[in-house]
Design a protein that fits this description.
The protein is mostly beta strands. Helix content is about 10%, strand content about 30%. The two termini are about 40 Å apart. Residues about 1-35, about 35-45, about 45-55 and about 450-485 have low confidence and may be disordered. α1 (about 115-130) crosses α2.
């Protein structure tokens, strides 16, 4: 069967740098183009050796005949086998049901993984979490004659009685540019009782049997690059390679491991995120640059929140509490405002409201003119003023305590602020000045508040302007809520 290449980008990517700290390839020099070898049973050339004593990974090319057709198969299972009573293997075409492996020379015995029950339970839970977005069951209970993929944990590289799998190898998998039905992959007992390493290497080796290459995205399970946390399958394109970029083994030069597994295994039965818009409400009268916010809940991780106006995405946020603003250039009149919340299974939760965009308010107007009681005008939009809880200029601990969802700092002071045009500097209400925090971006800060760094100030026109020295509020530090999960 032909190699599966359609889902890999054919785009040259810039080489990446740092060497891996957990895994490296099993060969000595990278080829200019990394095409799988013609002869089955040989090591796939996948980059340069690190030259250190750490364990390394290996792929063994099985030939395209070993790969099944594309697309999810029914009743998919990944069995995690800690070889508690030793695992006995025979050489032959890969078949987890009969304990046959193409990587074994003759007969082989895999010794148990030396971890306690509690650690093993954590490894299993971790791998379930890694594969949770996909339509595959992960279990440590033997499926018996039921078709399944299997990852054996334990033993050493020499356990397979295969001359080309040496002591430096920490894991190995058959590879065929596609799914190898009933494949057996191996994670050797060289990592110690470390859940992070066993989980990450288990994910990488098992995914090789689904046709995944190595890549240069440190957080991804298919990467050799060091990463401080457990590695998962990341929904992002990255160059193929171990320590430097190379062509992908099955075509192109980039891989998206998440996308590949969606095509191979399908998405799991997750539920879409729940969306509850709190602002604006349906039927609201709004002004240019109006704030959009809500409560978003999901049983998985939220990846991003999008704001679509009249079915066009105009803003995206990836950090809680996911603040979104409509563009100042939006035309007056009726509009459909929709929030779309996307989770890590690509599930989408939505809620839409109808609003009418009216004329902008005037920041220079007297209090109570053009805005509701207690509100002030910022850049043509009405927002909570200093007399309201969480209003402009109020002290804040973090963004969640501000109506604007924006908390800025100068020196020892933290106050609720609103975004303004740092270049123009005239969009703030009386008593506030638009102080530039970065290129063409500013924040409305109280004129009578303490300035960081000893900067001088002077007010004019009822406090609509503020002159700040170079060491002053231009060094505002923005505080936003930390991302969860």
């Amino acid at each position: 069967m032909a190699h599966t290449t359609a889902h890999r980008r054919v785009r040259r990517a810039a080489p990446a740098g740092a060497l891996a700290l957990a895994l490296a390839s099993a060969t000595a020099s990278p080829p200019a183009t990394a095409a799988p070898p013609a002869r089955p049973g040989t090591l796939v050339p996948t980059g340069a050796d690190r030259g250190d004593a750490g364990p390394r990974g290996a792929l063994v090319w099985q030939g395209p005949h070993a790969a099944a057709g594309p697309g999810p198969q029914p009743d998919q299972v990944l069995y995690l086998n800690r070889c508690a009573g030793d695992c006995e293997l025979r050489s032959g075409e890969d078949d987890s049901r009969t304990n046959r492996s193409s990587l074994v020379g003759g007969a082989a015995r895999i010794a148990p993984l030396e971890v306690d029950d509690a650690t093993w339970a954590e490894v299993v839970a971790c791998l379930r979490e890694t594969y949770a977005p996909f339509a595959i069951e992960v279990t440590d209970q033997d499926p018996g004659d039921r078709p399944h993929f299997e990852t054996m944990f334990g033993g050493s590289p020499l356990s397979l009685n295969n001359d080309f799998i040496g002591l430096g190898v920490g894991g190995v998998s058959p590879f065929a540019c596609g799914v190898i039905p009933n494949a057996i992959t191996f994670v050797f007992d060289v990592w110690g009782p470390t859940v992070k390493a066993l989980c990450s290497v288990g994910a990488q080796e098992s995914a090789h049997a689904f046709g995944l290459d190595h890549e240069l995205l440190a957080a991804d399970a298919q990467s050799y690059l060091w990463y401080p946390d457990v590695k998962r399958f990341i929904d992002a394109w990255a160059p193929c390679g171990e320590s430097v970029a190379r062509d992908c083994l099955c075509g192109g030069n980039e891989q998206n491991s998440f996308d590949d597994l969606v095509r191979t295994l399908g998405l799991g039965p997750g539920t879409p995120p729940a969306v509850a818009l709190t602002e604006p409400v349906d039927g609201a009268q709004v002004q240019p640059g109006f704030l959009v916010r809500g409560r978003y809940l999901d049983d998985r991780a939220i990846r991003r929140v999008e704001l679509a106006i009249d079915d066009v995405v105009v803003a995206t946020s990836t950090t809680p509490p996911y603040p979104l603003r409509a563009p100042l250039t939006l035309a007056s009149g009726p509009h459909r405002v929709e929030v779309r919340v996307v989770d890590d299974q690509r599930g989408v939760g939505r809620q839409a409201v109808a609003v009418t965009l009216g004329a902008a308010c005037d920041p220079a107007a007297a209090p109570g003119v053009g805005c509701a009681s207690g509100q002030v005008c910022v850049e043509g939009r009405c927002t909570a003023g200093p007399d309201l809880a969480g209003g402009l200029g109020q002290a804040c601990a973090d963004a969640s305590t501000c109506a604007s969802q924006q908390c800025d700092r100068s020196g020892d002071e933290q106050r609720c602020t609103e975004a303004c045009d740092g270049a123009g500097g005239e969009g703030c209400p009386r008593g506030f000045a638009c102080v530039q925090t970065s290129d063409a971006v500013g924040a409305c800060w109280p004129v009578d508040a303490t300035l960081a760094g000893g900067g001088g100030c002077a007010s004019a026109g009822g406090g609509a302007h503020l002159v700040v020295a170079a060491a002053g509020l231009g060094l505002l530090g923005r505080r936003r809520r930390r991302r969860r999960g």
